Amino acid sequence: xxxxxxxxxxxxxxxxxxxxxxxxxxxxxxxxxxxxxxxxxxxxxxxxxxxxxxxxxxxxxxxxxxxxxxxxxxxxxxxxxxxxxxxxxxxxxxxxxxxxxxxxxxxxxxxxxxxxxxxxxxxxxxxxxxxxxxxxxxxxxxxxxxxxxxxxxxxxxxxxxxxxxxxxxxxxxxxxxxxxxx
Amino acid sequence: xxxxxxxxxxxxxxxxxxxxxxxxxxxxxxxxxxxxxxxxxxxxxxxxxxxxxxxxxxxxxxxxxxxxxxxxxxxxxxxxxxxxxxxxxxxxxxxxxxxxxxxxxxxxxxxxxxxxxxxxxxxxxxxxxxxxxxxxxxxxxxxxxxxxxxxxxxxxxxxxxxxxxxxxxxxxxxxxxxxxxx
DNA sequence: AACGCGTGAGACGTCACTGTCTCATTCGGG
DNA sequence: CCCGAATGAGACAGTGACGTCTCACGCGTT
Lengths: 182, 182
Prior knowledge:
The structure is a homodimer of 182-residue chains. Chain A has 182 residues and is mostly helical. Chain A is built from nine helices and no strands. Chain A has a domain at 53-176: Tetracycline Repressor, domain 2 (Orthogonal Bundle), CATH 1.10.357.10. The radius of gyration of chain A is 18 Å and the shape is elongated. The interface between A and B is large, with 42 and 41 residues. The first copy, chain A, binds a DNA duplex (30 and 30 nucleotides) through residues 1-3, 23-25, 33-37, 39-40, 43-45. Chains A, B: Residues 2-60 form the HTH tetR-type domain. Chains A, B: This is TetR family transcriptional regulator. Chains A, B: Keywords: DNA-binding, Transcription, Transcription regulation.
């Protein structure tokens, strides 16, 4: 009986990632509930978006924690990061495109997560296994871009879901690693 | 006196990439003209979007032609592709996000350009300089994703425009190339 | 000067979406 | 069994954007 808020948010993220202009009615239908019920659980469109950001960031942060980014070398940390974050790629794709929508008005929690990822790349550069002619900031942006592109490619069948993680990790690590070793 | 259609489209692309829900009034203001004049040159929002797609695809195709993708090795072809396409990255970023907006209803010309890029990656794989565990389809998607992420990163100053091309090329080529050689 | 073209400003009706409401229905627990 | 909570369906006015229109102005041409 009780609506699964998390399920609604997940469906909403999927729809809004594909179609940023989706109406509340479309979102409700995508989640399998009526527009009235959607409004009962989320005060309005703004509240829905905010909840979406909160849940996405929370899950992403949880993935970052689980990845133990400080342990081992940076390459392994990145692999663990992608493996842990894989279930929330859809949310991340939404967050990335949404951050573009609200120019300047970004969620305060985003900076913190951004810094943690940035730190991994910087550590990799300091350890000498990542090339230094690509800034850690760019590598972070590239990670988001690849996740977004990957989530989209999976969505309409151009990439198999089981290959997604390997595809992103190998491309990003191959591009970031110094070509000398190995 | 006569409005520069191309300038209007360029401004519109820039604005719509950042804010997909921008109103016709906002687009007009961004282009420095009135809403009335905008409607005189483009029958409506749909027509504007269509014109945007047409111009973006035409410029992108022109870049592909100039890059002589069939000459030399695949790595060089990709470098030339990125160099030639660099001025139209903003348009491409728009096209990528816009293709997501109209699910299924994609521009017919896109397939052709997509196939040309895909062919470069496939050729690189057949020539043995690109790894084969990453599908050419994924590499193509990754190219779009990196261009989109790069254009966005440049837009709000996280990456210098002069570094953009190098950043994308090195990351993509580094990730795509077989790590054995060089 | 007179004319015409393109533009800016604004008014207007239309339409889709929003947010809130009411009412009937259903499902589960006491 | 009955009651209450949650849902679905629909009505309602408010809002904003859209597309079209008219009118006045600026500017170049004849």
